[in-house]
Amino acid sequence: MGTHVIKMPDIGEGIAEVELSVWHVKVGDMVVEDQVLADVMTDKAMVDIPSPVHGKVISLGGVPGEVMAVGSILISIEVEGAGNFKESAQPAAVVAKEAPVAAPSKVEAVVESKPVASPRPAAVCQGPMVAREADERPLASPAVRKHALDLGIQLRLVRGTGPAGRVLHEDLDAYLAEGQSNASAPVAAYALRNDEAQIPVIGMRRKIAQRMQDATQRAAHFSYVEEIDVTAVEELRAHLNEKHGTTRGKLTLLPFLVRALVVALRDFPQINARYDDEAQVITRLGAVHVGVATQSDIGLMVPVVRHAEARSLWDSAQEISRLATAARNGKASRDELSGSTITLTSLGALGGIVSTPVLNLPEVAIVGVNKIVERPMVVKGQIVIRKMMNLSSSFDHRVVDGMDAAQFIQAIRGLLEQPATLFVE
Amino acid sequence: MQTLNTTLLIIGGGPGGYVTAIRAGQLGISTILVEGESLGGTCLNIGCIPSKALIHVAEQFHQTQHHSQHSALGISVSAPTLDITKSVEWKDGIVDRLTTGVSALLKKHKVQVIQGWANVIDGKTVEVGDTRIHCEHLVLATGSKSVNLPMLAIGGPIISSTEALAPKSVPKRLIVVGGGYIGLELGIAYRKLGAEVSVVEAQDRILPAYDAELTQPVHEALKQLGVKLYLKHSVQGFDSASNTLQVLDPNGDVLNLETDQVLVAVGRKPNTQGWNLEGLNLAMNGSAIKIDNRCQTSMRNVYAIGDLSGEPMLAHRAMAQGEMVAELISGKTREFNPTAIAAVCFTDPELVVVGKTPDEAKAAGLDCIVSSFPFAANGRAMTLESKTGFVRVVARRDNHLIVGWQAVGVGVSELSTAFGQSLEMGARLEDIAGTIHAHPTLGEAVQEAALRALGHALHL
After folding, report:
1. How far apart are CA B449 and CA B452, in angstroms?
2. C-alpha angle B164/B165/B167, rounded to 5°?
3. Domain identity same for B376 and B448
4. Could you tell me the CA-to-CA distances from B387 to A314, B244, B384, B410, B442 in Å, in that order?
5. CA atoms of B156 and A188, how far apart (whole Å)
């Protein structure tokens, strides 16, 4: 028997540290070759770490959420034969994962940070069992008390399962696990609650938090809201869906918006751009790669419709639909999640009246779509019912002037209100 | 003037102070400890340790005398004689070894010990002679002093426990003022060393801090030893010309008690005077410094531990507080929250109280089972020629959680370990009853007390 050590591999982006996101194995598990051991997270996406060997897991090198140096020991596996320990352990081969993130249920299932003994059988109590009153001093051994202090847990909040309601080490573990999975028993509507749940900000959430904070700290956001009469474009959309829906697929408003962006950006190249504020360079791009903000179970993702300038309405629609499904199922690749030049964000029916979108740096513009409502409008001196929709957009005011931004949005408005102009060359 | 800077400064090298220093040293905190007298404080030099040494001498002398008279064990020896000077030398040897040990431990953990009396300047500055010490954290551990009675100034025939622990000769007659544990421990020892001992106590029984059932065996032992008890008597004064102590009996009549020495043992009070503590203007709790459950005083980063922080004035409490304070200063989250602190009287028989007594349990509103097992039914006790005393357990009736242990009997001080552990671990009666206790030991009475509380003692 030998020990095979797998070190945190170099993901190949010049990254010195990688966040360990999820363990798919625990100490004592038997693993086979190519079985996925863990997911690690880079700036861009999740990466699978497969096992190169058959064997038994004997130790884990970190806990989920831990940022580990490339080359540090990730996992040790007991194998037949000599193993690679004490030899120069090679970092494991990297397989870029189709799925950028694991299914959330898996995340919760593998929160244990240390080997845990098999669950204790229910305490067999010879004598009567009376639970502790709310204001009674919690019953716990000195070691449990000290451990609770170290963990910052108030013992009185922990349910003791030991004899006479004694709080055991296992109860602390269970309390911690409860906090992580955020599972709380249903309570009466007006029950007094003292529970707290601590959710570690790791993985995807940490990445989102960092990017949002970075964007709001670095960019000089300014938002601009305009209302758009979408009656005409909605009529066109309904007509096209009626005529071609069965053969070419249904259209949402999004492909029309993509089309509007593409056409408007021809006159506003400064808005289809990336601003590298460290190098102090603005890169204007001919291609329009439209990021489409998409909500998934584990958080916000932005899959990218590439080369929107070369796509027809139905082409765009299919691509948006395919990417959204992939993102929601965790199947979007790293390439599909990066490289946008401008971002569209829509909350659909939840779109509200106004939003203040946060830029997807290093882009300089993000266009937010609010909901469509029928409103009485004055047209040529007459009050008529029109379908109205607001566009709430944010720009990086460091490099986009207010005049340009306003003119850009007015151009989009013009295109959407006169939908024929979307297609007139 | 020399100026020193340190993270932690501890005033007082007793059990509280030196343990704080050792733990701080272990945690890598730069530490200075100031002590005016010997390291080890009252406990090692003029308290716990020397008293136990003297009690041991007295017991050995007493046993030998017992064998020289009418020993049932078949041992016969000639009547022993006592060279008390040698006894005191032997005791001093133990004290020396312990204080030297403390000094070595402090050195090992890189604690700087400064000999001298501290004078507090402010919460972060202390002067010792012509040395000024600046610190980030200040731990006050100056202990306690014997309480004096105004009409019985220490001097000549009137002594405190300090003098009683270093006798030049054993007095023919000794009156102990105060029937608490210090007075009785020393009174019994002096009686065994040959003095005629009387105990004057203002309350109606000895060891008033403990319940009557518990103190009864001690009361009987005193009678058997021939210690005269003057209960409900209060001291009026001392006439040095006639060497008589005037006491007021319960009827209001004055008794003149002739004696060679008077030992004043009426308690101890926090040592708050003479080192400019008042300059810090800390919040007080009676005569003690007020502390929270982290031993923090009302001033930030100023801690008080041990006797200075009030009752219970016990060395093991001070040590535990000191250890905790050092860990707090190192940045750990800690609080002083023991389930119980054992109290032991090294009288004959010994007496141990850990956790709640039946009265305290009742006062706390707990419905409890109280059960005791007598040493008269314990084999080991018989082989030790000791059948007095018992082990008593107090447990909640609803879930059988043990909330207190008491014992009285020969050698029961060592049972305090088992008692303390059972309380801290949250043991129930079933846990103790289900633990196999070695036979033949006094500890069997512990298991039997638990069994009896459950209604099925085996040996009763």
Report:
1. 5
2. 65
3. yes
4. 101, 38, 8, 9, 11
5. 76
Of B332, B424, B431, the CB nearest to A142: B424
Contact A257, A268 (CB under 8 A): no
Report chain A (425 residues): mean pLDDT per 10 consecutive residues.
Answer: 79 69 84 85 72 84 80 82 58 43 38 39 39 69 88 83 85 80 56 76 83 92 94 94 88 92 94 92 93 83 91 91 86 83 85 90 93 92 94 94 94 94 86
Is residue B410 a contact partner of residue B376, using CB atoms and an 8 Å limit?
no
Residues A19 and A66 sit within 8 Å (Cβ to Cβ): yes
**Alpha-carbon gap: A144 to the closest alpha carbon of chain B (Å):** 9
Beta bridge partners of A69: A17
Terminal-residue alpha carbon distance, chain B: 72
CB A365 within 8 A of CB A342: yes
Q: What is the CATH number of the domain that holds B239?
A: 3.50.50.60
* Residue B260 shares a structural domain with residue B286: no
Same domain, B245 and B306: no
AA letter at A118: S
Residue B62 lies in a domain: no
Cβ of A161: how many Cβ atoms within 10 Å? 15
User: For the residues of B233-250, what is the DSSP string, one character each?
Assistant: -EEEEEETTTTEEEEE-T
Estimate the crossing angle of helix A231-248 against helix A254-267, to 10 degrees: 120
ipTM for this model: 0.72
How many folded domains does chain B comprise? Answer: 3
Q: Is B425 contained in some domain?
A: yes
Beta-strand pair B228-231/B284-285: unpaired
Helix ranges (DSSP H) in B199-332: 212-225, 315-329
Name the residue of chain A whose CA is nearest to B429's CA. Answer: A127
Domain range for B244 is 158-266
B259 and B274 part of one domain: no
Q: Over the Cα atoms of chain B, what is R_g?
A: 24
B338 falls within a domain: no
Query: Given B437, B439, B456, B459, which residue is catalytic?
Result: B439
- Chain B residue with CA closest to A132: the answer is B399
CB neighbours of A411 closer than 8 A, spacing ≥ 6? A263, A264, A267, A268
Q: Do B334 and A142 touch (CB under 8 A)?
A: no
Amino acid (one-letter) located at A230: V
pTM of the model: 0.61
Residues A80 and A3: their CA atoms lie apart, in Å, by 8
Say if B323 falls within a structural domain.
Answer: yes
Q: Which two tokens stand for residue A380?
A: 């040529």
- HSE-up of A161 (CA within 13 Å, CB side)? 14
Structure tokens at B257: 């008690």
DSSP string, B138-176: EEE---EEEPPBTTB-SBTTEE-HHHHTS-SS--SEEEE
- Together in a domain, B284 and B139: yes
- Assess contact for A385 and A375: CB atoms under 8 A: yes
Examine the residue annotation and report whether A401 is marked as an active-site residue of this protein.
yes
CB-CB neighbours of B385 under 10 Å: 12
Q: Measured between CB atoms, which of B333, B399, B425 is closest to A127?
A: B399
The residue to which tokens 């329009």 are assigned:
A288
Q: Are B391 and B439 members of one domain?
A: yes
The confidence score (pLDDT) of residue A132 equals: 53
- My answer on whether B347 and B248 are in the same domain is no
Same domain, B133 and B22: yes
Domains of chain A: 2-100 (2.40.50.100), 136-186+194-200 (4.10.320.10), 205-422 (3.30.559.10)
Torsion, Cα B286 B287 B288 B292, to 10 degrees, reads 20
Q: Is A127 on the interface with B (CB under 8 A)?
A: yes
